[in-house]
Design goal:
Length: 339
């Protein structure tokens, strides 16, 4: 069955596919298995930069980020008798991931956690302010007990009332320079780029890196193809936490590759209005909450969208051309994370 939803769980038969990432199968370890002990923290070597991350914090990160960190899965335990405590420092996981991006994600999640739950020495935060939403609404008629019970049950089953939602949007961009026919930039008989072509590739990478607005490329594709579903995706994201002129939170070129990785994180707008004065209670904008609940489709189910984009970038002064023609393959991954 075809769907107008631009991001779906199954790959539709379309030239513009948006497909769900297959969940990574991690090996499960249970506390009752006495021969194994869970690691309390992990020591990561992220492209030469060391991180010590608590296990619970690491596993609270978005599924799409974990798949990039550990594409072959992650063992969270050591054999019985393997030691613990300080001995865990001997186990270092080497990770091929941008350390600055990893630091950006950890910092955002730390700040979001403290804002919602309060600091460890003074818990509360927004979580405590909205606890009244789980209680019966005193504004409803007292005699209408069925409606009261239905509302309370709906509130208890709505995770957005009890957890902080974070929208995770990633872009993997691969770019291919199209050299001028008969020009100095070319490849040799073995397919390797000469110095002139390498210069064009580096300049193309710099030009693309400077284009940091999130929705410009997708909006250009919407205008070109008149794709209503993609326009709906932009509108939904901008109603849920993004702004139309937002820039990527982190964006950088991958080393030794014609590839740029970007990520943006925003707090999900749920429509919950928190009290500001004594005696007030939290209330909910139901229209905004309904929009936020649509993104629960991507909770623990990161989804992908791929499209090609033709771009012209200003060439360096030494080049024969004024512009560089580039084909870019963009892959977006959208996910909702609850902490």
């Amino acid at each position: 069955m075809s769907s107008a939803n631009p991001i779906t769980s199954a790959a539709p038969p379309s030239n513009n596919p948006i497909t769900s990432i297959q969940p990574q199968q991690y090996q499960q370890y249970h506390p009752q298995q006495q021969q194994q002990a869970l690691l309390a923290r992990l020591h990561l070597d992220v492209r030469g930069r060391r991180f010590v991350v608590e296990r619970e914090k690491l596993m609270s990160l978005p599924e799409s980020v974990l798949l990039c960190l550990f594409p072959n899965g992650l063992v969270l335990s050591r054999p019985h008798g393997g030691g613990g405590g300080e001995d865990e420092a001997e186990d270092v996981y080497v990770v091929d991931f941008d350390p600055t991006c990893f630091d950006f994600v950890l910092d955002f999640f730390d700040k979001a956690t403290v804002a919602f739950y309060g600091p460890p020495d003074n818990p509360g935060g927004l979580y405590q302010l909205q606890q009244s939403l789980s209680q019966p609404n005193p504004d409803l008629p007292v005699l209408n007990t069925v409606q009261q019970q239905q509302q309370q049950q709906a509130n208890e089953n709505n995770p957005l009332l009890h957890k902080q939602g974070i929208i995770v949007l990633r872009e993997e961009l691969e770019y291919f320079v199209i050299p001028e026919k008969g020009g100095a930039a070319r490849t040799d008989p073995e397919g390797l780029a000469n110095e002139e072509l390498m210069v064009l590739k580096r300049e193309a990478g710099k030009g693309l890196l400077d284009r940091k607005q999130i929705f410009t490329a997708l909006q250009r594709n919407v205008n070109k193809e008149n794709n209503v579903a993609e326009q709906h995706l932009i509108d939904m994201l901008c109603m849920s936490g993004f702004n139309r002129d937002d820039k990527w939170g982190h964006r950088d070129i991958e080393p030794s590759r014609c590839s740029i990785s970007s990520i943006a994180l925003v707090l999900l707008k749920t429509g919950i209005v928190h009290p500001t004065k004594p005696g007030e209670v939290a209330r909910v904008d139901q229209t905004q909450m309904a929009t936020a609940q649509k993104l629960l489709l991507f909770w623990r189910k990161p989804a992908r969208k791929c499209w090609w984009d033709g771009i012209e970038i200003e060439a360096p002064p030494s080049s024969e051309k004024k512009t560089i023609k580039v084909w870019a393959r963009r892959v977006w991954t959208l996910e909702l994370n609850l902490i």
